């Protein structure tokens, strides 16, 4: 692989930016249609993100446009590349899958752009694709190797049995997972997720990511899953996964995780976004040392509030932990101070006034509007970008091969 893209390729790819702005989504949809003719490739994808209103084609179209626009400054894409690599490892994307994507992408460009897709343009995009693909393949190889070499680690799919199911709220249940071989498991970084290969009757294989909601213990994992009204995987887990159910699981992955620090930490979540935050809180409490921790969570009401007692118990054992619960629409019989701390939404003013914005690391997880508002508020308050860490549940914005 060439260490750099040729100047001619850079120039030609930049020339396609207007075409990608106008036709990028059509190109991506055509690309997926071609790839999905191959069941092996189709089954690598979360099909719920690829329907008529699916968000993954839009996300990929934006990612391809970003790649073209930053072709002279690829360092700006480094965080996105790491997110892609981590997602690919969870999905078990391998080097042999990349040629399928290249073939479909170039064919889609040719089909959608017609005569504008000259041989020179297609050659340039072929070089640009493989340049990025080889970066991803190399990074993914390192992650796979680290997973395999680490105590309790593995590659591929490993069988776990559900050992316990706990109803956490009206919409969220936790599933404790124990390896079927009774051997140790890789000690994940708090905030990371597991990827599942689910065999759901009447459907092709389903792959889903679920955050680990417990700190590492080397023996088990816990995931806490929200039942989504139209969620194939979440409804199957809630309805069919009982103690004894066996699930295929890939090793922990994800670039969103708790960083080593002795300074203040703010764990900010909305809805089911609390799952990685609980894992981080457990790890921080186990660490001890009096590190200031602010656990701030927003949900609709008492019925939807998951793991509240567990969080309060953790905080009671550690004076340095402050917990604040927001209930957007409290039930008529709820009482402030007993069932929740604050009514309504987490406001910008409250967040800035009640957390150490000048020195804390912020970890944020929740729906996209929640994330956008929190990140904007903290940025305007002067929190450096490197101290704002976030994750949302849904298709990755920049998944280029899957």
Write up what this structure looks like.
With about 400 residues, the protein is of the alpha/beta class. The chain folds into three domains: about 5-150, Globins (Globin-like, Orthogonal Bundle); about 160-255, Translation factors (Elongation Factor Tu (Ef-tu), domain 3, Beta Barrel), CATH 2.40.30; about 265-390, Rossmann fold. Helices cover about 40% and strands about 20% of the residues. The protein has twelve helices and twelve strands. The strands form two sheets. A six-stranded antiparallel beta sheet has the order 4-3-6-1-2-5. It has a six-stranded parallel beta sheet with strand order 10-9-8-7-11-12, sandwiched between helices. Helix 1 (about 5-15) packs across helix 7, helix 2 packs across helix 4 and helix 2 packs across helix 6 (about 100-115). The radius of gyration is 22 Å and the shape is globular. About 35% of the residues are buried.
Describe the structure concisely.
With 402 residues, the protein is of the alpha/beta class.
For the structure shown, list the relevant keywords.
402 residues, globular, 6-stranded parallel sheet, alpha/beta, 12 strands, 3 domains, single chain, Rossmann fold, Elongation Factor Tu (Ef-tu), domain 3, Globin-like, 6-stranded antiparallel sheet
